[in-house]
Specification:
The complex is a heterodimer of chains A (608) and B (294).
Chain A (H helix, E strand, L loop, with lengths): L1 E8 L3 H12 L4 E5 L15 E2 L8 H11 L6 H20 L14 E2 L9 E2 L5 H16 L2 E4 L1 E8 L10 E8 L5 E12 L20 H9 L3 E2 L4 E7 L10 H4 L3 E3 L6 H4 L12 H13 L9 E4 L5 H19 L8 E10 L2 E3 L11 E3 L4 E2 L12 H16 L47 H21 L5 H15 L3 E2 L1 H18 L13 H25 L8 E2 L7 H4 L1 E8 L2 E8 L17
Parallel strand pairs in A: 1-2, 1-9, 2-6, 9-16, 15-17, 18-19
Antiparallel strand pairs in A: 3-5, 4-5, 7-8, 8-9, 10-15, 10-20, 11-14, 12-13, 13-14, 20-21
Helix pairs in contact in A: 1-4, 1-10, 2-3, 3-10, 5-14, 12-13, 12-14, 13-14
Chain B lengths: L4 E2 L4 H15 L2 H24 L3 E8 L11 E8 L6 H11 L19 E4 L2 E4 L12 E4 L6 E3 L2 E2 L2 H8 L22 H8 L9 H5 L1 H5 L6 H11 L6 H11 L13 H5 L6 H14 L6
Parallel strand pairs in B: 2-6
Antiparallel strand pairs in B: 1-3, 2-3, 4-5, 4-6, 7-8
Helix pairs in contact in B: 4-8, 8-9, 8-11
Classes of the chains: A alpha/beta (608), B alpha+beta (294).
Bound molecules: flavin-adenine dinucleotide (FAD), iron/sulfur cluster and FE2/S2 (inorganic) cluster.
Iron/sulfur cluster binds next to helix 6 and helix 8 of chain B.
């Protein structure tokens, strides 16, 4: 068994920042990650990172924009922390050598982004994430922080007290991908989940193949509620054939959207008369699909994004990467022709419920980055707000886990934060438990932390052994069916019937998963096994997304319901919480916090 | 299975037979479901194959040190339906998900930024995700990166590459930070432009694999690590003293002077980094600063 003060699971932007912060506080930190750090999906982020750095801008404006963008479903204390800490964190990155794009005076450049009242998106060409990831990994190398790369974390070592709020997390169990060993990692201070997104729940996504929601699924099964899972962001500009993202930076720099008739539809059909192409993402994604559905799309599938008028020089200076992406993955030269684009799954606003220190309701278990929900994005994330979230909340979680006092948290967590109103949601199908024995946590009778970890290792060994030895179904087909059902029914446009159909498919996938087996008998680099374990996580995540969406009968942010075309503030200014109750999802709510440091955020109509 | 995979060894069929005898005695039901599902999976693949006019053959290197019958390196042939825009990575994923789930390769972003699927495709180092099937001669031959130890199938051990990358102090070091906490260190646009290409490296290892010198000299820093050193040595924000220190590192015995400007690294780099040029420029800088000459 390995032992460290703080174990960080995942080495993308959030994980790296958490590890550096904990290390700076003097903790012995280790990172456990299924991909080598520089392979993490943070590297794919293109457009930029928001921070109020310039005169005329300040954190309060940033917080206001974020609250409005969230459609009033973000928690003010978390949003204000995001806006307050971002400038210092971004300048810190600059001090670590990150090659930001520059102004003539040598300071870092900033550009406009959708939903922002000030051009506060700091960037490094159209490859901001790549530079952010590498710059932070360099700092990890500099500090000699231990990295266990190509270790797949498959279980949390948590005690099984009846009430999740009494449980403690003492470490994780990981599968050493190269050797096939199952290894225990004991964390004396805390485990920080930073496992990133879960876009693989859908079949058209900008997310990497490794983004399978492992962190939220594991935390959920260990007893931490997941929050606002129905809020999935669909990015309006992805390449139709692959889902590769064309950054919002293109629209930020002046790129224009046209429909099949060559009309500038954002204005022509009144989707956003002021902001046009720069309206927030949900608005633009719906506009595009409406164009396609009304027969004004191109090849019944997509619309055009044109940046030719920006001129070659400006394109090369600020968006060069986009030229390569469009050429390599869609065969289009955007300096000469418009790019085909359509909406694709992009970001998950929901995730592991945490407070603004990254803590979950289980003692010693933290989460940060896209896998977490603090919640700063509410029902719709503004472009350029995920990267500051990684570093702000990564750093905060790292510090707290290392023992720094960050004060009393204002965002409550755990089942005790539930509001009075319960849902009497009538689900069409019994979501169905899935081999729950031993999944929740270690044996509560065991009190020694090391034994809790050992016990979890044993349970995991047995599970893996079983999957390797038996004969059964291959996961790939289950995964494919799940992804297709989600894309068909739980996409940008949603309705009750579709959501119920999706739940039905999810239940079938669960049933079939009971017979899943790994065909590859090898202990060496068994990706078949890894993908099989991931598929289970996808099923759990898909179910929480769909259940949350079915229950929320209103239209808010990214969540559009055919039968409910209005935002219902009287009923729905609350977070959807789903907790794992012995294998059956328990759905409840907790109130949104609109009360900030000096002011209360008043819900307003979101018009652009 | 015979229609899609033409095994060049009998190993797989034998293994299947084994599994069946064992299963017969115990999990009757499971076996039936499994059989049904596997057949279903193949059927789907067949259907997709029959719907497409064109199929492409992949000849894929296979090796598993542990599994009997697979420990002798061999090539398996997969036939997959060709679709417009299909990349080598797409084809590999199709083969794995429909015909043989044990087929092993690294991949993640499928957009040329994570650097994990550098492979030896038709005799050249390329990223699987960035290589269009239509740009290649068929059948397509896919092998692991040369000059690295094969872990399994297309996966190679990257440790040596990472060690070389990390040996050049690949992190920003400066004594010139501005005093105000929220004050950035200024960088000239031209300076950023100068280092821009060098900052694009995604650590894929293609260049190292293509380099004859690196193949013969295990201690040679290699093009990627030297490029990383360039990225910092040329960044004006680090200051002159630091630059001297950096030139010292790349000037060591197994550093820049080993490069014989064969350009193979520059040719294969998927990020178009002018590696050879960067190495040459560092040589010139080293001469200018009058350091040792090996
Ligand atoms: C194409 C694209 C472009 C984007 N552009 C922008 C942008 O311009 N601005 C912006 O603000 N946001 C952007 N985003 C969003 C933002 O980049 C992501 O939300 C963010 O990078 C996620 O970072 P992370 O650290 O949470 O996760 P990741 O970077 O995905 O890292 C996850 C880590 O967890 C590890 N991991 C996962 N599961 C396990 C496991 N079971 N065991 C061990 N390790 C595990 C992985 O190995 C990886 O290291 C973009 C997203 C995408 C997909
Ligand atoms: S320099 Fe180019 S080829 Fe070499 S590792 Fe970096 S990206 Fe790959
Ligand atoms: S899959 Fe990431 S570089 Fe090819």
């Amino acid at each position: 068994m390995h032992e460290h003060d703080v174990i960080v699971v995942g080495a993308g932007g959030a994980g790296l920042r958490a590890a550096i912060a904990a290390h700076e506080e003097g903790a012995d930190v280790a990172m456990v990650t299924k991909l080598h750090p520089v392979r993490s999906h943070t590297g794919a982020a293109e457009g930029g990172i928001n921070a109020a750095l310039r005169d005329g801008d300040d954190w309060e404006l940033h917080a206001y924009d974020t609250m409005k963008g969230s459609d009033y479903l973000g928690d003010a204390p978390a949003i204000e922390k995001l806006a307050q800490d971002a400038p210092e964190e971004v300048v810190q990155l600059e001090h670590w050598g990150m090659p930001f794009s520059r102004e003539d005076d040598g300071r870092v450049s900033q550009r406009p982004f959708g939903g922002l009242s000030f051009p506060r998106t700091t960037y490094a060409g159209a490859e901001t994430g790549h530079h952010l990831l590498h710059t932070m990994y360099e700092q990890v190398v500099k500090r000699g922080i231990t990295v266990y790369d190509e270790f797949y974390v498959s279980r949390l070592a948590v005690t099984d007290h009846d009430d999740p709020e009494d449980r403690e997390c003492h470490g994780v169990v990981a599968y050493d991908i190269k050797s096939g060993d199952i290894v225990g990692f004991r964390a004396t201070n805390g485990v920080i989940l930073a496992t990133g997104g879960d876009g693989q729940v859908f079949d058209h996504t900008t997310n990497a193949v490794a983004n399978t929601g492992d962190g939220p699924a594991m935390a959920y099964r260990a007893g931490v509620p997941v929050e606002d899972m129905e809020f999935v962001q669909f990015h309006p500009t992805t390449l139709p054939s692959t889902g590769v993202l064309i950054s919002e930076g293109v629209r930020g720099e002046g790129g224009i959207l046209y429909n099949g008739n060559g009309e500038r539809f954002m204005f022509e059909y009144g989707y956003a008369n002021n902001a046009g192409e720069l309206a927030s993402r949900d608005v633009v994604a719906r506009a595009e699909l409406t164009e396609v559905n009304q027969g004004r799309g191109i090849e019944d599938e997509y619309v055009h994004l044109d940046m030719r008028h920006l001129g070659e020089e400006r394109i090369y200076d600020r968006l060069e990467n986009i030229i390569h992406l469009a050429e390599d993955f869609e065969g289009v030269d955007p300096v000469e022709e418009p790019m085909p684009v359509k909406p694709g799954q992009h970001y998950h606003m929901g995730g592991v419920e945490t407070n603004e220190h990254g803590q979950t309701c289980i003692d010693g278990l933290y989460a940060a980055g896209e896998c977490a929900c603090a919640s700063v994005h509410g029902s719709n994330r503004l472009g350029g707000n995920a990267l500051p979230e990684l570093i702000v909340f990564g750093a905060r979680a790292g510090r707290h886990a290392a023992g720094t006092d960050l004060g009393t948290a204002e965002v409550p967590t755990g089942p005790s934060a539930r509001s009075e109103d319960e849902t009497d949601l009538d689900t069409p199908v019994d979501p169905g438990a899935l081999e729950t024995d031993g999944d929740v946590a270690a044996d509560g009778a065991l009190v020694e932390p090391a034994e809790v970890v050992d016990h979890a290792v044993e349970m995991e060994r047995a599970r893996v052994e079983d999957m390797l030895e038996r004969d059964g179904t291959n996961h790939a087909e289950i995964r494919e069916d799940l992804q297709k059902a989600m894309t068909r029914n739980v996409n940008v446009f949603r309705n009750e019937e579709g959501l119920k159909t999706a739940l039905e498919t999810i239940r079938e996938c669960r049933e079939r998963y009971k017979d899943v087996a790994v065909a590859d008998p090898s202990r060496t680099f068994n990706t078949d096994l890894i993908h099989t374990i991931e598929t289970r996580n996808l099923i759990d995540i898909a179910e929480t997304i769909t259940l949350g969406a079915l229950a929320r009968d209103e239209f808010r942010g990214a969540h559009w319901r055919q039968e409910h075309q209005e935002r219902k503030d009287d009923e729905w200014l609350k977070h959807t919480m789903i907790a794992w109750d012995g294998g059956t999802p328990d759905l409840y709510y907790k109130p949104v916090i609109l009360e900030g440091e000096n002011k209360e955020y008043e819900p307003k109509v979101r018009s652009y | 299975m015979s229609t899609q995979i033409e095994q060049e060894s009998e190993a797989e069929t034998e293994a299947e037979a084994d599994v069946e005898t064992e299963a017969e005695s115990t999990h009757q039901q499971r076996r039936l479901t499994a059989k049904h599902d596997r057949a279903d999976m193949r059927q789907r693949a067949e259907a997709e194959l029959s719907e497409t006019d064109e199929t492409v053959k992949l000849k894929v290197f296979r090796y598993d040190p542990e599994v009997e019958g697979k420990s002798d390196p061999r090539f398996d042939t997969f036939r997959v339906p060709f679709t417009k825009g299909m990349t080598v990575l797409d084809a590999l994923i199709f083969a794995r998900d429909h015909f043989d789930s044990s087929l092993t390769f690294r991949h993640s972003c499928r957009q040329a930024i994570c650097g994990s699927d550098a492979l030896f495709i038709n005799g050249r180092q390329r990223l699987g995700c960035k290589t269009q099937m239509s740009d290649l001669d068929w059948p397509v031959r896919i092998e692991p990166l040369p000059h690295a130890e094969v872990v399994k199938d297309l996966v190679v051990d990257m440790e040596h590459f990472y060690d070389q990358m990390e040996s050049v102090e690949p992190y920003f070091q400066t004594n010139d930070l501005p005093s105000g906490e929220l004050e950035e260190q200024r960088q000239d646009r031209a300076n950023r432009e100068k280092i821009k290409m060098s900052t694009r490296c995604i650590w894929c290892g293609a260049c190292m694999s293509s380099c004859n010198i690196a193949a013969g000299d295990n201690e040679y820093l290699g093009p990627a690590a030297i490029n990383k050193a360039y990225r910092f040595a040329m960044d004006e924000r680090e200051g002159e003293d630091m630059q001297e220190h950096r030139l010292n590192i790349i000037e060591q015995e197994h550093g820049v002077w080993r490069c014989q400007t064969q350009f193979s690294c520059t040719e294969v780099c998927p990020k178009d980094i002018p590696l050879t040029e960067h190495i040459q420029e560092l040589k010139r800088e080293a001469v200018k600063s009058n350091l040792k000459f090996w």
